[in-house]
Amino acid sequence: MASNDEQNQLQILRHSAAHVLAAAVLRLFPDAKYDIGPATENGFFYDFDLPRSLTEKDLTAIEAEMQSIIAANEPFERMEVSRATARQKMQALHQSYKCERLDAIPEGEVISLYKTGDFLDLCHGPHVKSTGCIKAFKLLSIAGCYYRGDETRQQLQRIYGTAFASQQDLDQYLQRMEQAKERDHRKLGVKLNLFLIDSLVGQGLILWTPKGTILRKQLQSFLEEELDKQGYDQVITPHIGKLDLFKVSGHYPYYKDSQFHPIWDRECIERAVDQAQSLDEIKERVRDKMDIDGFLLKPMNCPMHVRLYASQKRSYRELPLRLAEFGTVYRWEQSGELGGLTRVRGFTQDDAHIFCREDQVAGELKGCLKLINIIFTTLGMSDYRVRISLRDPASDKYIGDSALWEKSEQALRDAAKQLDKPSTEAIGEAAFYGPKLDFIVRDVLGREWQLGTIQIDYNLPYRFKINYVGSDNQPHVPIMIHRAPFGSMERFCGLLIEHFGGDFPLWLAPEQVRLLPIKDTCIAYADEVYALLKQAKIRCSVDDRAETLNSKIRSAESDKIPYVCIVGEKEQSAHSVSIRSRCQPHSNGTYPIEQLITLLRNEIDQRLLPEAFKGKKA
After folding, report:
1. pLDDT at residue 4 tops 70
2. Residue 558 belongs to a domain
3. Residue 449's pLDDT band (boundaries 50, 70, 90)?
4. Kind of pairing, strands 155-164 and 207-208?
């Protein structure tokens, strides 16, 4: 994993490459209007308003123009200017998007322009010294996007690219990209029949097939075992709640734009209609009710867990109270941002909320970290880092007392030190009610995924006015810890599909064993073995199709079945099977049925990783 300094230098290099991209586009399309071109986690992009749609051939021409600019070794010249000067220059270039971006810069903030050859951009920087510092880059794709992410605004064209410090690093990245295409969970999910997104059901809403449901339930059972060991109580709450509940919590209106519209009570609407004198008055009355009455598809489980806590009088002796739920929540994601399992509109969180005393916070955080480490290690994801997400004191989006924020932020810093993992701080990334630890996992292809989270919350308990009776017989406000090791079951399953490339560990595989009878005369014996495996709670099937053995083997390999058991007359007479394992190739051979069951149950019960993962970091 790159150091923070190396990562910062790489981000500067990529942002500089984005400027070169824009300069090249302007040379080829002089009437183009340009918006923003930031560095991203794995590269950069730039958004353009162009006279026509771009094609893959255009990317080749743009790359050639970029190479010309890089060869010229043009310097990046920074100019700090007044707001009026910046506007005058952008207007002279007919760059209306830049003028609007200029309006969004707060008063008093330094305004800077960067000049690269003939190209001028409104940009905060920094950049590399000159274009010649960009040694290895590649344009990757073209996509549509809306200006400022607003579907009502102009649609722009986004060009994606990447850049690295060396050609070797770039080549390795492009190779990983090709591997990633083969592992894409959207392709494998369909091929392995794990999940479905149906247009009649709705975008961003996942239908889990029987096989996908097995995968998901195995993950849930795994976590439930660990929850039981740590003393959690599981609860179930509704998918919908009164709007007032989420007003008290702050989720509405803080995240109003990312939630589904409230659902209004029919009687309320009918009264508004009956009392109105005109259509305009009906609209006005209904609009007035929109943010007052009604229900909301829950965007979070936490407010309902708070109400469970508040349902009875609590004593300090009862704490910590750990409430866990696999609760489905709903967010209004824009259609252009949806993607397979990783960005959806309805998803299930492996959510839990711990209500505790202040002297218990450190111990509870330690338990949460232990849980997350067990999960990641078991699934071959031991290569992860921690992001300590803090509030931005200059922002007004955060609720609560500054002293409590400082206390909770320090508690998370102290907790992060307990892990032998890299950690960084991110100002402005906290939730509106509290700071958090975000866990960034690196998969087998070196890609990073933000998964689990732990949050300390002093604010929701105050907003809901909950308390417990302390040892002094006085009321005290509990501290609330939010934690979700998987984060989202959908996103986590998407990661697992790509992480394992569909070759799941035996305990997770929807179908663990496939029996292949060589002849029709061996089908009865295969059925006998099938019954014994099912009795041992091993998920299996019999391929009794009138196909050749090689055809059946190829089918099992395509379906990524962990164990294929060949059943012929020789095996039948010896009451055995010949196995071929994708997970543990060293186990290949002929086994008596009882020994096979012992072998499989041991691998399942210990949740062993595939042999390819042994001795590896994820």
Report:
1. no
2. yes
3. confident
4. unpaired
Residue 615 has pLDDT above 60, yes or no: no
Mind giving me the DSSP string for 172-236? HHHHHHHHHHHH-HHHHHHHTT-EE--TTT-TT-PEEPHHHHHHHHHHHHHHHHHHHHTT-EE--
pLDDT of the residue at 260: 84
CB 207 within 8 A of CB 190: no
> DSSP letters along 70-110, please?
HHTT-B-EEEEE-HHHHHHHHHHTT-HHHHHHHHTSPTTS-
* Residues ≥6 apart with Cβ < 8 Å to 123: 19, 112, 113, 114
Q: Distance (Å, rounded) from C-alpha 120 to C-alpha 103?
A: 18
Within 10 angstroms of residue 526's Cβ, the number of other Cβ atoms is 25
Determine the Cα–Cα distance for residues 581 and 564; give it in Å rounded to an integer. Answer: 6
Q: Is residue 191 among the annotated active site residues? A: no
Judge whether 299 lies within some domain.
no
Residues 32 and 66 in one domain: yes
Domain of 333: which CATH number? 3.30.930.10
Write out pLDDT tens, residues 227-274.
999 999 999 999 999 988 998 888 877 777 788 888 876 666 666 667
pLDDT score, position 616:
47
Choose the catalytic residue: 47, 351, 383, 457.
Answer: 351
> Is 353 noted as a catalytic residue in this protein?
yes
8 Å CB contact between 274 and 221:
no
Choosing from 15, 138, 353, 582, the catalytic residue is 353
482 carries an active-site annotation: yes
Structural domain containing residue 401: 210-234+319-500
Domain-located, residue 262: no
Q: Does residue 436 have an active-site annotation?
A: yes
Token pair 């907003």 in the structure block, residue: 463
Q: Which residues pair with 141 in a beta bridge?
A: 160
| Residues 44 and 38 sit within 8 Å (Cβ to Cβ) | yes
- The mean pLDDT value for 318-332 works out to 95
Residues making up the chain, counted from first to last: 618
For residue 331, indicate whether it is catalytic: yes
Lowest mean pLDDT among 172-176, 364-368, 396-400, 435-439: 396-400
Given the residues 302, 368, 540, 583, the one annotated as active site: 302
